[in-house]
Write a structure and sequence with these properties.
This protein is α+β, with helices and mostly antiparallel strands and 243 residues long. The protein has 2 domains: 111 residues, Beta Polymerase, domain 2 (2-Layer Sandwich), CATH 3.30.460; 113 residues. The protein is built from 10 helices and 4 strands, in the order H-E-H-E-H-E-H-E-H-H-H-H-H-H. It has a 4-stranded mixed β-sheet, sandwiched between helices. Strand 2, helix 3 and strand 3 form a beta-alpha-beta unit. The chain is globular and about 55 Å long. It starts with 6 loop residues before the first helix and ends with a helix.
């Protein structure tokens, strides 16, 4: 199964991220401890259509909403296309404030690629119990609500294709992280899922969604499978004891 990670696309995206990092370096000075790539730009599988650009900022004392707005404005000036993909994670030296959920902290610890680093500061590694408590909360509830939403649709709007594909792929990411406490690429997560034999889970549907992502095409041909989404949620819930 091939991946859609065109070298020129990845290079252009990394250049964009590097430009954002250089702006922040000049803007924040000594308050900035490090800027890192997370997600698919760090651990592989970046897709020009469906991937986010995950960037982590570790600072001495944190940042505020005004700074976040400034970052987005600078990013928009660099690329109106890529700014829509930009997702900022941030915290202070102690990792006590900001937006840096447990699973993204694991991604930072295991896969972060430094764009600028004055000092490497690491949080305590979330335990498997921490990861499961997090996944069983808002992430699972949001996926369940998304599955119900899509299952009830008659047509798939052009602005919902990305979120629909993510709903189809989520069982792999969810089960991988629930079982291992780690983060992985979509490819590795689906490969892991293939080994689990989860009762009631349509693994072929997840694999078809992964191939759609690789091809960077519309998931319209998978829309007929939307009724299976609540069953996918139920299968995952039974596996991990959320039912």
């Amino acid at each position: 199964m091939g991946t859609n990670t065109d070298d020129s696309t990845v290079a252009a995206t990394r250049m964009f991220a590097g430009s954002v990092a250089a702006f922040l370096d000049a803007k924040m000075g000594a308050n900035l401890l490090g800027i890192y790539l997370l997600g698919s730009l760090a651990h592989g599988g970046f897709n020009r259509r469906y991937s986010d650009i995950d960037m982590a900022l570790v600072t001495e004392s944190g940042i505020d909403e005004a700074m976040l707005d400034t970052i987005k404005a600078e990013a928009a000036a660099l690329s109106l296309e890529l700014v829509t993909k930009l997702s900022i994670f941030w915290s202070n030296r102690q990792f006590t404030i900001g937006r840096f959920p447990p699973l993204d902290r694991v991604d930072y610890l295991d896969h972060a690629v430094a764009l600028i680093e004055r000092e490497r500061v690491n949080p305590l590694r979330p335990t498997l119990q921490d990861i499961r408590a997090y996944l069983g909360g808002a992430p699972f509830a949001n996926w369940s609500a998304s599955a119900t939403h899509f299952a009830c649709l008659d047509t798939l709007g052009s602005n919902e294709r990305k979120s629909y594909l993510r709903a189809l792929l989520y069982p792999a990411r969810f089960i991988y992280s629930w079982m291992t406490g780690g983060m992985a690429s979509n490819d590795d997560a689906v490969a892991f899922l293939n080994e689990q034999r989860v009762p009631g889970l349509d693994v072929n549907l997840v694999a078809a969604a992964l191939q759609c992502r690789h091809d960077a095409r519309d998931p319209d041909d998978l829309f007929s499978a939307r009724a299976a989404l609540p069953r996918q949620v139920a299968a995952c819930a039974r596996l991990v004891g959320l039912q």
